[in-house]
Design brief:
It is built from 2 helices and 19 strands. It is an alpha/beta fold and 188 residues long. The chain has one domain: UDP N-Acetylglucosamine Acyltransferase, domain 1.
Length: 188
């Protein structure tokens, strides 16, 4: 039955038609080494230089931002982080599109923000991206995943290991895969 169907042909993949990384090859190369040495590297435990390095590469970063070791940030020039937000160990910000992180946001260890995918319905498997917004006070739990195009509204919580495929409402805790609302978040 599948013999007469059209098949994916990855030899026809051409990312230049559908995806713009937003910086030249020199800037991307410099960021690759900076990210490897100062962000991904677990042997570089210092937090204070990281916001400054992100700003050098075009990120907008507020005051009091904490970035732990082992964090992977794809494109800082597509990143905005508000004041007093925390990014935990081994978090992966795969920000192929604009990623807006508000004030007092927590992205816990091992969490992933995924902003790109491929159109599996097309023979050449083109890349597509969508922005992600983490509004003020939101929390992405350890090992949780936020997918492309999702907004975590003010003070919403995505529980440990959960997957957000749709927007999360304000002051609500979500859990599961796909994440569903389980209770109200009350901040005392």
């Amino acid at each position: 039955m599948s013999g007469d169907r059209v098949r994916v042909d990855l030899s026809r993949f051409d990312n230049s038609k559908t995806f713009d990384p937003g910086a030249g090859v020199v800037k991307r190369t410099l960021w690759y080494f900076t990210n490897s040495l100062f962000f991904l590297n677990p042997l570089f435990p210092f937090r204070s230089p990281k916001p400054h390095l992100l700003r050098l590469f075009g990120a907008r970063v507020g005051k009091g931002v904490v970035i732990h070791p082992g964090v992977n940030i794809k494109f800082p020039w597509k990143l905005t982080i508000g004041d007093h937000s925390w990014i935990g160990q081994r978090a992966w910000l795969d920000n192929l599109d604009t990623l807006t992180i508000g004030n007092n946001v927590v992205i816990s260890q091992g969490a992933m923000i995924i902003q790109g995918s491929h159109d599996y319905k097309k023979v050449d498997y083109p890349t597509y991206t969508k922005p992600v917004v983490l509004e003020d006070g939101s929390w992405v739990g350890a090992g949780a995943i936020v997918t492309l195009g999702v907004t975590l509204k003010s003070h919403s919580v995505l529980a440990v290991g959960s997957v957000a495929t749709k927007d999360l409402e304000a002051y609500t805790v979500y859990q599961g895969n796909p994440a569903v609302a389980v209770r109200e978040r009350v901040v005392a």
